Amino acid sequence: MLQKELMDTTDAERKRQIKILIQRMDNKEREEKEKQLKELKDKEEKEMRKQAVKDGKKPFYCKKSEKRLLELLVDNYEQLKKSGKLNKHLKKRMKKNIIKKEKKRTKEEGLVVSQIFNHYKVVGNTTTA
């Protein structure tokens, strides 16, 4: 209805007001959807906690920061999946982790070798080994 009025109106001020109204309605609708989605997630979490208590486990409560981080990671995953870049991202992460492990392993081996070298150096000065 507002779209039709926007097309029919020739007054610039009235067009601006109608555009603002349309934008406000769209924002309100989007906010309502987000609110319903959040309430649904909260309800699911509550049900999971109740089920855990019934099973004899302790209920787990996330901090707000942990919750935000988890939501951010899930959103990032969904975005990568939609754009088709998930496999590329996972390959990069795997490569990065392999390099980190290799550096850590070589650093530890270097420490062991240097300790052995220092041990023989000290022993060599005092005794003949």
UniProtKB/TrEMBL annotation:
The keyword Ribonucleoprotein applies. This is rRNA biogenesis protein RRP36. Component of the 90S pre-ribosome involved in the maturation of rRNAs. Required for early cleavages of the pre-RNAs in the 40S ribosomal subunit maturation pathway. The lineage of its organism: Eukaryota, Metazoa, Ecdysozoa, Arthropoda, Hexapoda. Associates with 90S and pre-40S pre-ribosomal particles. Residues 31-55 are annotated as: Disordered. Keywords: Nucleus, Ribonucleoprotein, Ribosome biogenesis, rRNA processing. InterPro entries: RRP36 (IPR009292). Signal peptide: none annotated. It is found in: Nucleus, Nucleolus. Pfam families: RRP36 (PF06102). One of its GO terms (biological process) is maturation of SSU-rRNA from tricistronic rRNA transcript (SSU-rRNA, 5.8S rRNA, LSU-rRNA). Belongs to the RRP36 family. GO terms for cellular component: 90S preribosome; nucleolus. The keyword Translocase does not apply.
